[in-house]
Amino acid sequence: MNFMDTISGMAFESLSRSSALIDNIGLNRTLEAMKEKRDFAEILMKEISTGNKPAPEETDKKLMDLCYDMEALFVGNMLKSMRKTIIENDFFGKSLAKDIFQDMLYDEYAQLMARTDQFGLAHQIYNQLSV
């Protein structure tokens, strides 16, 4: 056996050990993932069987709050579009702080306008989603 055969044999043996180690790590990860999936499936089945559901009033309140938020987004976009049509005066100057303040102010206006039920969009969305 010559020197090159010995080196190539050692390299092959080292490579096969590394491959076996990598395969073992991959197998361990696969087993861990299967265990996590089984745990998730057990928890899910337990929750379904016990019927842990939120109270209807709580679900209705959360849905209505989301509908108000959706209306606020719509009103906020409308207000921002309206604000773009206003010609700005440079009396107060231009700054990032002023822009941030105006954005926050108009977002708060939108939230307040949505909660007053003047548009009625939140109730329409609620009726569609609660069917």
Helix-strand layout with pairing:
Layout lengths: L2 H48 L5 H29 L11 H20 L5 H9 L2
Helix pairs in contact: 2-3, 2-4
Question: What's the short version?
Answer:
This protein is mainly alpha-helical and about 130 residues long. It has helices at about 5-50, 55-85, 95-115, 120-130.
Plain-language structure description:
This protein has 131 residues and is mainly α. It has 2 domains: 1-52; 56-129, no CATH class. Helix content is 81%, strand content 0%. It has 4 helices and no strands. The chain has helices at 3-50, 56-84, 96-115, 121-129. Helix 2 crosses helix 4. The N and C termini lie far apart (82 Å). The mean pLDDT is 75.
H/E element sequence: HHHH
**Unreliable stretches, pLDDT < 50, 5 or more residues?**
none
Helix content: over 70%
Rg from C-alpha positions? 31 Å
Question: Which geometry do the CA atoms define?
Answer: elongated
List keywords for this structure.
elongated; mainly alpha; 131 residues
